[in-house]
C-alpha cells in the first residue's frame, strides 16, 4: 500500500480518530481524548498517555511506509519496574548523581507516568529524531538516542536537548 508524502497526509491526519485524539489530548490538553474503541495503537503503547500512544502509532506507520524499522523497546513502566531499574543503576554507576544520568527514581520517571518511550533499532531512532516533531515527538536527552517524549505540538519545533536526565 502506498502512502502519500508527509505534507499530503494532513487531511487524512485530521480525520483519523487516533490523530484527532492526539491533537485534542496533546495540544488542547483534553485528558483521555482517545476513545476506548480505538484498537489500532502500535505494539508497546499499553499504559502510555493516549496522546503519546497515538502520536507514536502514526510515526511508526510512516516509518514502516518508508521502509524504516521502528518499535518501542520500553514504554510504560510500573513503579516497581522503575524502582528495580533505579536500584540497578545505583549498583552499576556507584552513586545517585551518576545513576541519574541514565535512570531516574520512580517518582521522577516519565516512563512511570506513561509519558516516555524508548525505541529501536538505532537507525529507527535516528529516523524518529529527524521526523518525530511531525507528531510532537522529541528526543529530550543527548545521551539517550532511544528516548522520546511528546514535547511540542505536531509540526512544531523540538526544544533544545538536555545533556542527560539529571538536568531536568
From TrEMBL:
GO molecular function, one term: peptidase activity
SUPFAM superfamilies linked: Hedgehog/DD-peptidase (SSF55166)
GO BP annotations, alphabetical order: proteolysis
Domain D-alanyl-D-alanine carboxypeptidase-like core per the UniProt entry, residue ranges: 48-133
Family annotation (Gene3D superfamilies): 3.30.1380.10
Pfam annotation, one family: VanY
Superkingdom field: Bacteria
Protein name per the record: D-alanyl-D-alanine carboxypeptidase-like core domain-containing protein
UniProt source species: Nocardia camponoti
Amino acid at each position: 500500500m502506498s502512502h502519500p508524502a508527509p505534507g499530503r497526509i494532513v487531511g487524512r491526519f485530521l480525520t483519523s480518530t487516533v490523530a484527532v485524539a492526539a491533537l485534542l489530548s496533546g495540544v488542547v490538553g483534553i485528558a483521555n481524548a482517545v476513545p476506548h474503541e480505538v484498537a489500532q495503537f502500535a505494539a508497546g503503547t499499553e499504559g502510555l498517555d493516549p496522546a503519546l500512544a497515538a502520536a507514536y502509532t502514526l510515526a511508526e506507520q510512516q516509518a514502516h511506509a518508508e521502509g524504516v524499522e521502528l518499535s518501542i523497546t520500553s514504554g510504560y513502566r510500573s513503579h516497581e519496574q522503575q524502582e528495580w531499574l533505579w536500584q540497578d543503576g545505583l549498583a552499576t554507576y556507584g552513586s545517585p548523581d551518576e545513576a541519574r544520568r541514565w535512570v531516574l527514581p520512580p517518582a521522577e520517571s516519565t516512563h512511570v507516568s506513561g509519558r516516555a518511550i524508548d525505541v529501536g533499532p538505532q537507525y529507527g531512532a535516528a529516523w524518529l529524531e529527524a521526523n518525530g516533531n511531525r507528531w510532537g515527538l522529541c528526543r529530550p536527552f543527548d545521551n539517550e538516542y532511544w528516548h522520546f517524549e511528546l514535547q511540542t505540538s505536531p509540526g512544531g519545533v523540538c526544544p533544545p536537548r538536555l545533556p542527560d536526565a539529571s538536568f531536568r
